[in-house]
């Protein structure tokens, strides 16, 4: 099969070629619950750029050459002898983690902290290819309203945004405020989820005029141009108090300090983007009683819930399509901020 393969890291992201389009062996069924999926769409994520940079070397055991792609959807191509819930030809979306289902975390539905798992595109070959090896337990059949190429990025970008927004929605009441920092691939989904799950006013902060325009299309009630005065403008909109919830999809640069400053006392700051550091004096944590919450992708049931929202038209993805052979162009465009929403590779 054809695949876009990472052969070496590029810490400066300056090479013309990040991955090599080449022939590789097609994956086989090796376990009774294995499923081979013919890829209909593979999302291109900023995490993929971090993988190219080598940032993930200290977190997971990856041996090069290796195939990225952890946002995948397509059609069932082959199944192991124990598979019963899907059949060949079914359109499916893949939860990003393949788990055994036997550990206590799995039995509690806490997929992301399973003790027995593999993560295609992160620590094993992923979906920048014509075919993907995954497991039955990770698959959700798609309704006829949703095409694989249109929903693939929901498996990480959508699911991560959904998880954070769902957490926030549980304590947001009418008349209260939620701030979304970053209206890109994750943020534009988070805005829609907040509107679907709660009645808070949504304020979106971003430096890009294009991203702010997308935020408006997705239902933002207020938009704020990112910059040194962003905190002041958010405080004006929230009557000087700050927001009850701030979801930071950037997580680096001055976004963290600004996000915490936008969070009202006893409010919640949800950190989703990464690359920076949270540095706050303990006395400030005590006197403000702010809660800082980390977010790691999401569970299988949450992906089911997100697909239900998509099926009803309550959330939609802004996507830009590339051929699998154009993977380098997609990665470069993402790196240089030229992608509105999410990029999707199509074999």
Provide keyphrases for this structure.
single chain; 347 residues; Rossmann fold; seven-stranded mixed beta sheet; six-stranded parallel beta sheet; 27% helix; alcohol dehydrogenase
How does this structure look, described?
By secondary structure, the chain is an alpha/beta fold. It has two domains: 2-156 and 297-346, Medium-chain alcohol dehydrogenases, catalytic domain (Quinone Oxidoreductase, Chain A, domain 1), CATH 3.90.180.10; 158-294, NAD(P)-binding Rossmann-like Domain (Rossmann fold, 3-Layer(aba) Sandwich). It is 27% helix and 26% strand. The protein contains eleven helices and 18 strands. Strands 3, 5, 6, 9, 10, 17 and 18 form a seven-stranded mixed beta sheet that branches. The chain has a six-stranded parallel beta sheet with strand order 13-12-11-14-15-16, with helices on both faces. Strand 12 (201-206), helix 6 (209-217) and strand 13 (222-225) form a beta-alpha-beta unit. Helix 4 (157-169) runs parallel beside helix 5 and helix 7 (230-237) packs parallel to helix 8. The chain is globular, with a radius of gyration of 20 Å. 48% of the residues are buried. Keywords: Metal-binding, Oxidoreductase, Zinc. It comes from Caballeronia temeraria. Its cofactor is Zn(2+).
Rg over CA atoms: 20 Å
Global mean pLDDT: 95
Relative strand content = 25-35%
Can you say what the CATH homologous superfamily of the largest domain is? Medium-chain alcohol dehydrogenases, catalytic domain
- Structure classification: alpha/beta
- Sheet bearing the most strands, described? 7 strands, mixed
Low-confidence parts, pLDDT < 50 over ≥5 residues?
none
Number of strands: 18
Return the CATH class of the largest domain: Alpha Beta
Order of helices and strands: EEEHEEEEHEEEHHEHEHEHEHEHEHEHE
CATH topology of the largest domain: Quinone Oxidoreductase, Chain A, domain 1
Q: Supply the number of structural domains.
A: 2
Give the N-to-C terminal Cα separation. 10 Å
Assign an overall shape: globular
| Discrete helix count | 11
Q: What's the architecture of the largest domain, going by CATH?
A: Alpha-Beta Complex
Helix content: 25-40%
InterPro entries: ADH-like_C (IPR013149), ADH-like_N (IPR013154), ADH_Zn_CS (IPR002328), ER (IPR020843), GroES-like_sf (IPR011032), NAD(P)-bd_dom_sf (IPR036291)
Enzyme class: oxidoreductase
GO molecular function: alcohol dehydrogenase (NAD+) activity; zinc ion binding
Domain Enoyl reductase (ER): 14-345
């Amino acid at each position: 099969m054809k695949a876009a393969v990472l052969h070496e890291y590029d810490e400066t992201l300056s090479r013309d070629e990040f991955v090599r389009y080449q022939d590789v062996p097609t994956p086989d069924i090796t376990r009774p619950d294995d499923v081979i999926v013919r890829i209909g769409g593979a999302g291109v994520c900023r995490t993929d750029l971090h993988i190219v940079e080598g940032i993930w070397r200290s977190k997971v055991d990856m041996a090069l050459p290796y195939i990225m792609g952890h946002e995948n959807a397509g059609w069932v191509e082959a199944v192991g002898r124990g598979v019963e819930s899907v059949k060949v030809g079914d359109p499916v979306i893949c939860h990003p983690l393949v788990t055994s289902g036997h550990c206590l975390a799995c039995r509690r539905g806490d997929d992301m902290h399973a003790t027995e798992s593999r993560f295609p595109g992160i620590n094993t070959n992923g979906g920048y290819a014509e075919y993907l090896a995954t497991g039955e337990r990770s698959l959700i059949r798609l309704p006829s309203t949703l095409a694989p190429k249109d929903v693939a990025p929901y498996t990480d970008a959508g699911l991560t945004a959904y998880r954070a927004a769902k957490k926030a929605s549980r304590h947001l009441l009418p008349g209260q405020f939620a701030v979304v920092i970053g209206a890109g691939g994750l943020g534009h989904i988070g805005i829609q989820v907040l509107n679907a799950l709660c009645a808070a006013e949504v304020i979106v902060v971003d430096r890009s005029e294009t991203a702010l325009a997308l935020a408006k299309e997705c239902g933002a009630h207020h938009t704020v141009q990112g910059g040194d005065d962003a905190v002041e403008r958010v405080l004006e909109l929230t009557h000087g108090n700050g927001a009850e919830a701030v979801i930071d999809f950037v997580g680096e640069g001055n976004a963290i300090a600004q996000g915490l400053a936008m969070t009202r006392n006893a409010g919640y700051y949800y950190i989703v983007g990464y690359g920076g550091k949270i540095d706050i004096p303990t006395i400030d944590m005590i006197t403000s009683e702010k809660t800082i919450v980390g977010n790691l992708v999401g569970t299988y049931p949450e992906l089911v819930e997100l697909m239900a929202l998509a099926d009803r038209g309550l959330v939609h993805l802004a996507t830009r399509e590339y051929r699998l052979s154009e993977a380098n162009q997609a990665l470069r465009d993402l790196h240089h901020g030229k992608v509105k929403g999410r990029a999707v590779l199509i074999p």
